[in-house]
Amino acid sequence: VGKDGKNGGREGKAKRPRKLLTIADWQRAARQRLPRPAYDYFRSGADDELTLERNERAYDDWVIWYRVLRDVSAPRLATTVLGQEIQSPILIAPTAYHRMAHPDGELGTARAAAARGTILVASTLATTSLEEIAEATRAPKWFQLYVHKDRGFTKSLVERAEAAGYDAIVVTVDTPVLGRRLRDERGGFGLPEGLRMENLVAALAEGPPDGSTLSHYVADRHDASLTFADLAWLRELSHMPVVVKGVVRADDAAACVSAGVAGIIVSNHGGRQLDGAPATIDAVSGVVDAVGGRADVLVDGGIRRGTDVLKALALGARAVLVGRPVLWGLAVGGEAGVVAVLELLDKELARAMALAGCASVAELDRGLVARSRAR
Ligand SMILES: Cc1cc2nc3c(=O)[nH]c(=O)nc-3n(C[C@H](O)[C@H](O)[C@H](O)COP(=O)(O)O)c2cc1C
Question: pLDDT of 350-362, one tens digit each?
Fold first, then answer.
């Protein structure tokens, strides 16, 4: 079975795995439970899905030159990000519409993040309001922002996030226009009845016009004129540190740091935006070098194994985020499913670290990984 679960039996006929031992197992189980349009929305990438595939596959090109005879009797996953202590370097990436996966929705993911001592990045496109999510947990949490053409509305989102107690603003910059997701277009994807984008209720009152998909309708409101200069504007809207999400280039990362951001998330939106973009793991070291310690660098996209996390941290990422694996956990088991998925990845990471001779995440350095073809 491939690690994306693709070879695991026919659609609809696959037997439920007796034990969910890998993220691929969780994906198969989620596929069996979710209505087809919801599963397709969660799993799909843009156009030919080249970047979606590449994100995962690129991890296989890196090998781990493990160390031996170190004391690894108690591997420690704890670290800090933006100065905040977390128990695991695996954060929850912002993804839309959690209540489409399970009635627990964003409240389930928020509580699961708290239970695992990590951070939820709540999406602008949540099906639960950012205030309700904040009330569900006292753990650190970040708010992901899409900058809308209506800057007054954008400002109000930031102010609401600060008032609700969020610890950072994550501005997504890889979505000036929406990537084309053919499965959603073919299936006429829309939100199931009863679910709304609760943060946007005021802005979306009139709903999508005929012939416009929901996603395009939403993205049409995003401000495609956004530039580096706007990062200064964003920083001044609140006291929260600003993290930029969706960077793959070293020069862009350097420009973001010059604009005073506290963090960079190396991301291509899980292959849902520009098809043909590089795998994010291949972009990490260039960004880390350009940033030179002036901001925290995180990465997401295609992380399905503890060894993937190990490779990302070894290449210089401070932490990683996972998107789809969390949605599979949520779809299968609600809040408990998300806890189980995060625990699975933590355990895989702890085992990988022990086998690689590293007792703490601080010991994961570039000397530990190399491109397989280079040797
Ligand atoms: C179903 C889905 C919805 C997403 N929604 C958002 C979103 O609202 N805002 C955002 O910044 N990124 C969004 N993303 C991108 C994720 O934050 C993240 O970059 C990506 O999922 C990481 O790749 P992975 O799913 O392979 O872990 C979404 C991704 C998926 C799969």
Answer: 999 999 999 999 9
